[in-house]
Amino acid sequence: MATKQQPSKNQVKERLATVELALAQLTDKFNSTTYRQNELISSCIENARNELQSALDSLFNGKTRESFDRAGTAWLYADFGRQILEAEAVEHILGESDYLELSEISLPWEDTAADLLYQLEQKILLLRADIKKLATDESKQ
Amino acid sequence: MPFKLPKKLLEWLKQRTPEAKIDQLVSTIGQVNELIQGREDALSALVRKHIFMAEEDCNAALVNSKFDNKQNNNECLRRIEFGLFRLELAKQQLNSEQKESCLPNFDKGTIEYRALELSGAIIKTKMAIEFNNCVVSESSKLQLVGIVKMFNQAIELLKSNQQDKSRRLIEAGLLLLYIAKREIEIENHESIVDLSEIWKNSTRESQSIRQAIEASYNLKTACSNCPSQATPKVLSRLDDVTEKLHRAIDAYSKANDDRVDELISTSVLQTKLAAEAFQSSPTQDNISPGNGQTNEQLGERLSDEIDNRISQFKTQILVLQRLVTNRATQDHLANRRLDAADKYHQAAANMYRKVLAAKDNNQSDSELNRQQLRETIEKAETLARSATIDLEFARNLLFKKSGLPYQELIKRIAEDSDES
Question: What pLDDT is attached to residue B367?
Answer without folding.
Answer: 64
